[in-house]
UniProtKB/TrEMBL annotation, chain A:
Species, as recorded: Oryzias latipes (Japanese rice fish)
Family listed: Belongs to the globin family.
Name of the protein in question: Globin domain-containing protein
Globin domain boundaries: 1-141
SUPFAM superfamilies: Globin-like
Keywords, comma-separated and alphabetical: Heme, Iron, Metal-binding, Oxygen transport, Transport
GO cellular component: hemoglobin complex
Entry's Gene Ontology molecular function annotations: heme binding; metal ion binding; oxygen binding; oxygen carrier activity
Pfam families to which the protein is assigned, alphabetical: Globin
Keyword Ribonucleoprotein: no
Automatic annotation (TrEMBL), chain B:
Annotated protein name in UniProt: Beta-type globin
UniProt-listed SUPFAM superfamilies: Globin-like
Originating species: Oryzias latipes
Any GO CC annotation of this UniProt entry: hemoglobin complex
Protein family membership: Belongs to the globin family.
Origin: domain of life: Eukaryota
Record domain Globin: where: 3-147
Length: 141, 147
C-alpha cells in the first residue's frame, strides 16, 4: 500500500534518476550479475562486461521504464501492458529474478544517494518495485 | 564447508575493521523496523515505535542494533566454522526469542543497504557479492537449529 506522500516521493526520486539512467541501470545490472551469477544466463547474447555499450543501453532501458511507471503508479497495468507481453511471451524471465534486480537497484540507489536514501525512501521504493514486478509478471500465466 | 578466497576474507575483515558499530548497527535495525514493519512484533517491550521518527530516535533500538552487529564479530573471527559458532545463538533465537528465521534475511538486506549508503561507490559489485555471501552464511547458521 502506497500513501500519497510515498507516491510523490517515488515520482520525484525516479525523475532525478532519469538523466543518469544509463549509470544507474548499468550499475544495478553489474551488481546483480556479481551477486547472482544465474541471472547472467539471460544475457548470453550480449556483452555485459563493465563499461560495455550493451550494458549501458540495457540498463538505461530498464531504468527509464521504471521511471515511466513511477509517473503514475495507479496506471501501472496500462503503462506496462506492452512490457507485460514482452516478458511473458518472449523474454520469459523467471519472476524470482525481478526480486534480485529490485534488491540491486536499492543498493545502487543507496550508493548513489548516501544518507539521502532514507528508510522512508527505501520503504516506498521497495514497495513500488514489488508492485512493478508483480504487474510485469501478470501475463505469465 | 564454505570456501573463502583470500580476497573474500580480506574484504570481510576490512568492512568490519572500519565499521562504526553504533551508527551502522542502530541504522540497520531501525531501517528494518521501518521498511518491514511486521518485524516490530519482536520489539513490543522496546518503547515507542509509533512512526519512523520514533523508531529512528529510540535508544533501546539503537542499543540493540549495536549489540546485534557486534554479534557478527564472532563470524568474522571464525569464518571457517560459522555454523558451529552460531549453534547456541540459533537455539536462542528459536527456543527463547521465537524469531521467524525469514526475518534474518530482512535485517541482512537492510545492513547491506546501510553499508552501501556509507561507502558509496566504494561498495563495488564484487564487495557487495562477498558481503552478501558472508551474510547468507550467517543467516543460514542462525536458522540451522530450528526444529
Amino acid at each position: 500500500m502506497l500513501s500519497k506522500k510515498e507516491k510523490q516521493l517515488i515520482r520525484e526520486i525516479w525523475e532525478r534518476l532519469t538523466p543518469v539512467a544509463e549509470d544507474i541501470g548499468a550499475d544495478a545490472l553489474l551488481r546483480m550479475f556479481a551477486s547472482y551469477p544465474g541471472t547472467k544466463t539471460y544475457f548470453s547474447h550480449l556483452d555485459i562486461g563493465p563499461g560495455s555499450a550493451h550494458l549501458s543501453s540495457h540498463g538505461k532501458k530498464i531504468v527509464l521504464a521504471i521511471a515511466e511507471g513511477a509517473k503514475d503508479i495507479s496506471q501501472l497495468t496500462v503503462t506496462l501492458a506492452p512490457l507485460q507481453t514482452l516478458h511473458a511471451y518472449q523474454l520469459r524471465i523467471d519472476p524470482t529474478n525481478f526480486k534480485l534486480l529490485s534488491h540491486c537497484l536499492l543498493v545502487t540507489l543507496a550508493c548513489y544517494m548516501g544518507e539521502g536514501f532514507t528508510p522512508e525512501a527505501h520503504a516506498a521504493i521497495d514497495k513500488f518495485l514489488s508492485a512493478f514486478s508483480a504487474v510485469l509478471a501478470e501475463k505469465y500465466r | 564447508m564454505v570456501e573463502w578466497t583470500e580476497q573474500e576474507r580480506s574484504i570481510i575483515t576490512n568492512i568490519f575493521g572500519n565499521l562504526d558499530y553504533e551508527d551502522v548497527g542502530s541504522k540497520a535495525l531501525s531501517r528494518c523496523l521501518i521498511v518491514y514493519p511486521w518485524t516490530q512484533r519482536y520489539f513490543a517491550s522496546f518503547g515507542n515505535l509509533y512512526n519512523a521518527e520514533a523508531i529512528k530516535t529510540n535508544p533501546n533500538i539503537a542499543a540493540h542494533g549495536t549489540k546485534v552487529l557486534h554479534g557478527l564479530d564472532r563470524a568474522v573471527k571464525n569464518m571457517d566454522n560459522i555454523k558451529a559458532t552460531y549453534a547456541e545463538l540459533s537455539v536462542l533465537h528459536s527456543e527463547k526469542l521465537h524469531v521467524d528465521p525469514d526475518n534474518f534475511k530482512l535485517l541482512a538486506d537492510c545492513l547491506t543497504i546501510v553499508i552501501a549508503a556509507k561507502l558509496g561507490s566504494a561498495f563495488s559489485p564484487e564487495i557487495q557479492a562477498t558481503f552478501q555471501k558472508f551474510l547468507a552464511v550467517v543467516v543460514s547458521a542462525l536458522g540451522r537449529q530450528y526444529h
